[in-house]
Amino acid sequence: MTFAEQVIRYNRNLEYTGLPLPPGIRVMNPFRENALALELSEAFYRKYYSDDRPRQLILGINPGRFGAGLTGVPFTDPKRMESVCGLPFPGKPAHEPSSVFIYEVIAAYGGPEKFYGDFLINSLSPLGFVAVDNAGKEKNYNYYDSAALLAATGGYIVDNIRTLKNLNITRDRCFCLGTGQNEKFLRKLNEQHQFFPHITALEHPRFIMQYKQKDLGSYVDKYLAALRGATA
Length: 232
What we know:
This is DUF4918 domain-containing protein. Residues 48-228 form the Uracil-DNA glycosylase-like domain. InterPro entries: Phe_SMUG2-like (IPR032579), Uracil-DNA_glycosylase-like (IPR005122), Uracil-DNA_glycosylase-like_sf (IPR036895). The model has no long low-confidence stretch (mean pLDDT 95). The two termini are 26 Å apart. The chain is globular. It has helices spanning 3-12, 30-33, 35-48, 68-71, 78-83, 97-109, 112-118, 147-165, 181-193, 205-211, 216-231, and strands at 25-28, 55-60, 119-123, 128-132, 138-141, 169-177, 198-202. The chain has a single domain (3-226), classed as Uracil-DNA glycosylase-like domain (Uracil-DNA Glycosylase, subunit E, 3-Layer(aba) Sandwich), CATH 3.40.470.10. The protein is of the alpha/beta class. The strands form 2 sheets. The protein has a 4-stranded parallel sheet, sandwiched between helices. It has a 3-stranded antiparallel sheet with strand order 1-4-5, with no helix packed on it. It contains 11 helices and 7 strands.
């Protein structure tokens, strides 16, 4: 089975198996809610992962509504899916700042073929969460944004990391996107379960785009040094 087919099977089988969520929070599963996300992501993985090469694992937080929530591919919004990956998105165009940064890194690394030939991006929680207010309006919500949600999702996240490790993943290290709560929780889990000998944490793309955009080039260089060091 190619790496592509492994990831496609993983995505098709995704379902939330954690404890009940706190009131006002719901699971976002693009592969069950959006047929386009499933179809587009399968085309993406078959384009870049139809081989048996091992990949280094990069773990984000959880999918957002305007990136993986639409395309099924972490940190890849519809604009990048079309303009960089060459896969048409027939829905309404959408823009995710984190995707902009990641694709700056991908371009500097040598392009999507080279980058995705070495790395797989996923998340501690491969399913997203949204908070729903009394008017029914939704906003992105991270698994650590409340103690109750973190407690509910902890076991599910552990199971997910174990499942990802069973793909053709290089197990000597993983990369963590987020040097705050995401890193803190992943390191805590890693101490308990010994998933990886080494974890390299990098500032989250959303943080860079929101607060450090004037230093974007420096952060791209930091990412490149870490990623190239792992594949040298």
